[in-house]
Amino acid sequence: MYFYGVISQTVAANRKQTDGRQREQHHKRERRYKSEQRGTALSAQDNERTTDNERTTDNERTTGISVEALTSLNAPVSFWKGIPFGLQHVMAMFVANLAPIFIVASATKMTAEQSAAVIQSGLLVAGLGTCLQLYGAWRIGSKLPMVTGISFTYVAAAVAICADKGYGAVVGAVMVGGLLELVLGLTARYWRRFVPPIVSAIVVTSIGFSLLTVGATSFGGGDGAEDFGSWQNLTLGLISLVACLAFQLLMKGTAKQLSVLFGLIVGYVAAVCMGKVDFSGFTHLAIVSVPQFMPFRPEFDWGAIISLGLLYVVSSVEVLGDTAALTKVGLNRLPTERETAGAIAGDGLISSVSGLFGCLPLTSFAQNIGLVAMTKVVNRKVILSGGVILILASFVPAIAEVFNSLPQAVLGGCTIMMFGNIILSGFQMISEAGYSQRNITIAALSLTIGIGFTQVSDIFVHFPALFRQIFASNCIAVAFVVAVILNAVLPSEDHFLAAPKESADESNDESGNTEALQN
Questions:
Q1: All residues at 6 or more sequence positions from 123 whose CB lies less than 8 Å from its CB, including other chains
Q2: I need a labelling partner for 448 at 20 to 30 A (CA). Which of 91, 414, 460, 518 fits?
Q3: Residue 20 in domain
Q4: How far apart are CA 123 and CA 131, in angstroms?
Q5: Cβ neighbours around 392 below 10 Å, total
């Protein structure tokens, strides 16, 4: 027994010693593994840091500008080195800037010389407006990387005014309406609470719908064309549309922004091959010419002024959304009150100047906000180079003449796609505003009345002449006014969904009876 006890104690001691060695080896393995993992993580961080540095170095080697400078609002950047990025913004908005002018010029039967003069002016005021928004003066201008251009918002109303009063009435209304928007910008803090996101969404949606007939008319060959709807026009429109669509589907990143430009080039080449392009305007073309000041005599008609004035209010609402979107995607913050008010005031001032040059009103361009979202390039000096390029282009009449010789069907094929995107943007804004019962009611009634009633303009036949001139053919103005009224008079969402008192009492009685029966 004695030996048995000694042996047991020896075995137990050996087992305890073995267990201790195993635990110690296990702890060593754990420490070694953690050390290796820590080293791997540090190595990965070093590699990632090295990769980022390599990317920055590659970018600096390619463009001469660091990523930090491009993504900073006020970093010092050479004007010449920023030209490639500024040119990218010009290419993204070039067609959309001139298309409204071309559509209105064709609808009003302007001569080739008049149309070319207005197109030149469109380039000039777009460049001046961009510079004003970038750097501003006093409380005018947002001081943000905002690119401005001729707005589609006013196209349908301008065409309707031209048919009744002539283009001079449009020019006069543009000048007066711009001053109205300037005042709206300076007083934005007092009225912006009356325009919630759902009203802005309805405005954008109605703008898209108002342009559908404009795009379809261009697709067929243009208003009053002798060969309207011919197979040549429909073929050209289809070629341009398919080219736009294919480019947008096949390209990636910022290149997608150039789909409309690509469609115009393909359509223009096809039109040349089909003999549909008139080159007579290039015969006596000057190499350089100065944009004309006041090429049209302004006429101040109250109906035209009020009609476009309402659209200036609508445009101010659009600018609120554009400024918020720009600061969110480019600067990762909300806009200040000064930036929002300055953006609206800047659009108003440059729109009045645009009227002096016989052109249409301007606004901030969503295409360029999308470009900022993809590239994160927000440096003001970089965007300034784009504004200067637009100003210089306005002194080259050949650019205006190329666009002036463009067949309407080619433009129609490209603009149909643009107008469809505006409608979808409006639907997206309605979704972001929220599908509450109150918002659904406001959107449904506003769009139905705005679009439906203006399709049957005789419904306004017994209204005063001034009222008919403002609303009979202007679905944007009708939808906006209805949306503002509904937003003001409808109860809040809590009251909107609240159950009637009687039904609530009945519900309480029923629940009490149920409890009594259960007891």
A1: 97, 98, 291, 390, 391, 393, 394, 399, 400
A2: 414
A3: no
A4: 13
A5: 12
- Show the tokens assigned to 40: 């791997």
Which residue, among 366, 365, 320, has the nearest Cα to 184 in the 3D structure? Answer: 320
Residues 118-154 have pLDDT tens digits of: 999 999 999 999 999 999 888 999 999 999 999 988 9
Q: How far apart are CA 515 and CA 251, in angstroms?
A: 66
Q: Is residue 230 part of a domain?
A: yes
State pTM to two decimals.
0.73
Beta-carbon contacts of residue 81 (< 8 Å; ≥ 6 apart): 63, 64, 65
What's the distance, CA 288 to chain centroid? 32
Which structure tokens are listed for 350? 């440059």
CB atoms closer than 10 angstroms to residue 50: 10
If asked whether residues 281 and 379 sit together in one domain, one would say yes
Write out the H or E segment, with its range, that includes residue 384.
Answer: helix 380-393
DSSP 137: B
The domain tally of the chain equals: 2
The secondary structure of residue 389, as a DSSP letter, is H
- Per the structure, the complete domain to which residue 55 belongs is given by 26-63
Q: Do 41 and 163 share a domain, yes or no?
A: no
